Amino acid sequence: MTMQVIEVREVAGKAEMKTFIRLPGRIMAGDPNWIEPLHFERAQFFSPKSNRWFDHGEAAFFIAWRGGRAVGRISAQVDRLSPKVDGRVCGLFGALAAEEDQAIVSALVAAAEGWLRGRGAGWMRGPYTLNINHEAGLLVDGFDSPPFLLMPHDAPWLGPMVEATGLARARDAFAYRLDTTDGLPERPKRLFRNAPERLRTRPVDLGRWAEEVALIARIFNESWKNNWGFVPFTEGEIDAMAKEMRPLIDPGLSRIAELDGEPVGFIILLPDVNEAIRDFRGRLFPLNVLRLLWRLRYGRIRGARVPLMGMMPGLDGIVGSIAPLMLIYSPEPRYRERGFTELEFSWILEDNLPVRKMIEMLGARIAKTYRFYERPLD
Predict the structure, then answer these.
(1) Is the pTM value of this prediction over 0.90?
(2) Which of 110, 203, 245, 367 is the most exposed place for a label (fewest CB within 10 A)?
């Protein structure tokens, strides 16, 4: 009996892209915590016609075939805004999914590496789908619960197989979860009970939502610019984000901090849409559109996630120490009104010790660990 050869080919045409998008759902079908992303949304995300990331990035998508059957996938991309490593272009990989076979994973990583080499990359890092501002990291711990919205969920065999290809751990990032059945803890409130009057928080203004998103992006770019792997949001991405996020925004949950009337920080808190789409199997049209709208407005969603939070640098003294806590606590009345019982802060880099310490002070615990890998392409 001969082993069937694994062939890795770049995606060509709509039919193969459909296979690329739906392949993880088949591989992960036996995992009770897998939640299928909406196929329609993924098709738009991976399309240069729809995703403004392609204004500053180039990507290729690969499928591994064996015996005429798709058995794995990977993407390779070069983001012109990504920081260089040791003065060399850092190519990215992502969207990794594969059956439990080292030969498949090795073939996929080799295909991504070859494509990146051909575009002058001297390093390889990932997984990013498509960069650090999108789904990022490979799940290596915390397989026992579903992911919150916009967070990856991977097969437990992928991490060891990726490492077997020669990619090494670069950083870990964590998803912290906090049980809020009885509300947010009372003790930390004492720290900002006597906050100066010049510091306040306000809800985001949906009436001027585009301006609010531009403001949030500006604070984000300033507050995170020194973080590992940082890539700024561009104007095109900001415009697209304003349109995509608006249906999910509850002004009572997303807030902006102001000091002397000037914006200095923000928090975005979103209901965990994954709970609402868990039984959709990736299909949105036609009937699931109405189901989704109903569930978001009237359904019982128990979880919420903080995907974005930022503070302008240079806030010293009491303002710098209490403003982040004020932002976390300011949505609490609306949070309790919506009936949320679990809050996720994700993701948080392992070396971001000030943020980790603050979140742990609230009683949050690490629920999931995501790993980034890298290696030089010598």
Answers:
(1) yes
(2) 110
Q: CA-CA distance, 42 to 129, in Å (whole number)?
A: 11
Asked if residues 369 and 336 have their Cβ atoms less than 8 Å apart, the reply is no
Closest CA to 253 of 201, 181, 195: 201
Number of other residues whose CB lies within 10 A of the CB of residue 131: 22
Per-residue pLDDT reduced to its tens digit, 114-126: 999 999 999 999 9
Q: Residue 93 pairs with which residues in a beta bridge? A: 76
Of 137, 161, 144, nearest in space to 72 by CA: 161
Cis check for the bond before 191: say yes or no (omega within 30 of 0): no
For residues 180 and 328, is the Cβ–Cβ distance under 8 A? no
Q: Which amino acid type is present at position 46?
A: F
Query: Does 178 score more than 90 pLDDT?
Result: yes
Q: List, in order, residues 6 or more apart from 2 with CB less than 8 Å away.
A: none
Handedness of CA 130, 135, 137, 138 (dihedral sign): negative
pLDDT digit string, tens, across residues 151-174 = 999 999 999 999 999 999 999 999
